[in-house]
Write a structure and sequence with these properties.
2 helices, 22% strand, 69 residues, three-stranded parallel sheet
């Protein structure tokens, strides 16, 4: 689980790097979930794009900002 808020500039690089690392180093399956915490930039759209491109990535979107939602 990767909680994000307004991470449009770094999200793609971070998630693809994490996915590559896990794919190369884990001997079992995994899933990366991007939890967009009501971002106001393009983070949500970028998370959806990553989920469409990478089979082990999914995106969820929270409508209200707040820690622990």
């Amino acid at each position: 689980m990767i909680p994000v808020y307004n991470e449009q500039l770094e999200l793609t690089a971070s998630v693809t790097r994490l996915d590559r690392y896990l794919q190369d180093h884990l001997p079992y399956g995994y899933q990366i979930t991007i939890a967009d915490n009501a971002s106001t930039d393009g983070t949500g759209e970028m998370a959806d794009r990553l989920a469409a491109q990478l089979p082990r990535v999914r995106a969820i979107h929270l409508d209200q900002k707040g820690r622990g939602r």
